[in-house]
Amino acid sequence: MNAQTLREESCPMKPQAFPGPGRPVLLSLVAALLLSACAAGPTPAVTPASVQAVPVRFADAGPAWTVAEPAESQPRGAWWLAFEDPQLSDLIARAEAGSPSLQLAAARWAEARALLRTAESDRSPQLGVSAGIGRQAGAGTLGGSEPGTLATAGLNASYELDLAGRLRRSRDAAELDAASRAGLWQSSRLLVQAEVAQTYLQLRSVQADQRLVQDSLDAYRETLQLTERRVRAGDVAELDLARVQTEVAASESEALALQRQEAALNHALATLTGEGAGGFRVAPAPFDSHLPQIPAGVPGTVLARRPDVSAAQASVLAAQARVGVAQAAWFPSVTLTGAAGQASPQLGDLFQWSARAWSASALLALPLWDGGRREAAVQGAQARLDQALASYRSQILQAFQEVEDQLSALRLLAGQAEAQQRAVASAQRATALSESRYRNGLVSQLELLDARRSELGNRRAALQVRTSQYLSTVALVRALGGGWGEAPAAGDLAQR
Question: What number of H helices and E strands is found in the chain?
């Protein structure tokens, strides 16, 4: 990503000698003012070598790399609409409205915007009104050594000339902090959306698994009834009955375990949406959400819109600006102040024209010796810039790894799903043949139970592979910062 670089500004102004004797103090003051006007403290450049580049493409795209422009403001759309599941869309809308983590991120963003307004106000003239009345005695009073009363009322104004760029850089840093908080809010929003989607899809998977186990349990119970009749008729041994009873009990235990998982996932969804877990429940429904297809050749530049990456970039630039703020402390500061109003020893004469008073002044402050405080502040600001750069590079590498992990997972899961479907078809055929042969007395009950166990295991394995495909798709959406291409607009949500 491109890094903004601030350079020293050259100044054509030079201090001019004033003719005539007796001007050394004035000459020094004017020289200091002119030099401070040229002293826009240099801000260290963030070079491309110090920032991690973004790959052009993922996977086997070769060694080519590019520097991507920030695109955190690019619309991400309602990416969850690609799953074509109204229940999922409703849950995400409820989470965006009630998630405590989103509310916390929004409050931090609001705080950063308030700090930005504070920094902007420092660059504006400061106006105020004042009024007072006092009584004093001694030299300088209107009545000499006698006690006197002085009433005042007036308008005060002050303005700091930002000759060294300190206020400007402070404002720039605050603006970048606000941008970073905005990125973190977007990141929290995307995280909540992804967690809701993954938790919901896991819940649908568990509910589908419950139906598989229940179907198997119904078959075992039917076999148990048949076996009990055959035991009473003396056709089979009691051992066959014990085997079927074992399978029934094991299936009932598995069904209860799945109910426990369903309850936990419902509670997790309630927390994500900011609702109470007690009365929250997503009714069972078929696990038939559409599985979006990832297009080939996803460009690496989509990482530029990841909100956490853009937030890290803004943090780098804010730290860079604060190095300039620390360096500006070495240069003079000039503050202009003025006051105009009324002053009178008699309160009744306070607003008479003859009681008018005014003052104007300019204050130049030039630090000379502070025991190394300013140098330490510059070193501390530079160290914070180095930390921000390291964090930014780490964020880029982590983002790239996350995308590659999910792309690889989806590619391998597609092949695994195809192979698992073949295994399910073969297991179903084996179960059908075993049931027919068992009813005709051609095979033992043990062979039938083995066939049923194999079919159930393969069907549940296929469900887990399918669930992993859904979860990896959501994880890829999160890793890419909200989808991999043109997503539906958020307004389309109401039309679905």
Answer: 8, 6
